């Protein structure tokens, strides 16, 4: 587990660099990987109770990637905690017989609790897992799920949102990556969901809003989560920037998914290192 904000920011930088290296080899959903990198890094490398050497532990926290196309950012965080090597992700991604692909699959990768990719499914499954933990008398584990803001237009999400309150699932923690864009353009133009936080509040969720690209804010938000045996589910609305950290990708729907050239890779890594060094090494 990493405790210091500086080290967590370095860990997020490493995840971003790995994402870009992979993006130089295969087309990945780079924009939505980069927007949620900080939250995923704090979750996996600071907050979650998950031991790669004991993945069947009944008391582990569970993770369901509802926006399943962000498999790469999940895999690089899992690599950072020792599930496998980051090079394995880069070498095996999208290869026949490989463990890693555009959507996480638990048939080939045991560190994936649930296969996802069809938007709107992960959240209801996470809700069911949280209910099952309650029925088994588990009072210490949480179920975390990460969704997109475009994904909020799936009706199945809102059935789960209502059920989580009805069944008093305080062990369920949902993150929404509010980067303002989906695949082809801005959320406002395509689905127009308005203020997502107020909708969760109206359903009765404990609703927290953070700058989802600020590691310090994220860390303190995770520190303040209600106990897993409490009664009200929590949603963390993460306000983020799609393509965060790479100047030519930020807020540009062209980079929802794609592959980068060697020159773009160099440019992007320089951009990320400069930002980190300006903050911590100047
Ligand atoms: C049910 C379903 N419909 C369509 C898609 C294709 N698709 C993949 S990513 C995406 C956009 C998702 O937008 P958002 O949830 O905002 O994700 P982010 O911008 O964070 O990547 C779409 C439509 C899908 N995976 N599943």
* Topology, number of strands: 5
Major β-sheet strand ordering = 1-2-3-5-4
Number of domains: 1
Coarse morphology:
globular
Structural class: alpha/beta
Tell me the radius of gyration. Answer: 18 Å
Order of helices and strands: HHHEHHHEHEHHEHEH
CATH homologous superfamily grouping: Thiamin diphosphate (ThDP)-binding fold, Pyr/PP domains
The proportion of strand residues reads 5-15%
The molecules bound to the chains, other than polymers, are: thiamine diphosphate
Counting copies of identical and different chains, the oligomeric state is single chain
**Major β-sheet, in short?**
5 strands, parallel
Question: pLDDT below 50 for ≥5 consecutive residues: which ranges?
Answer: none
* CATH fold annotation: Rossmann fold
What is the CATH-assigned architecture? 3-Layer(aba) Sandwich
The helicity comes to 40-55%
Which CATH top level class fits? Answer: Alpha Beta
The mean pLDDT is 97
Count of helical segments? Answer: 11
Distance between the termini: 26 Å
Structural features, described:
It contains eleven helices and five strands, in the order αααβαααβαβααβαβα. With 282 residues, it is of the alpha/beta class. The protein has a single domain (5-280), classed as Thiamin diphosphate (ThDP)-binding fold, Pyr/PP domains (Rossmann fold). It has a five-stranded parallel β-sheet, with helices on both faces. The two termini are 26 Å apart. The mean pLDDT is 97. The chain binds thiamine diphosphate. Thiamine diphosphate (TPP) binds at residues 29, 32, 35, 67, 69, 117-120, 148-151, 177, 179, 181-183, 242.
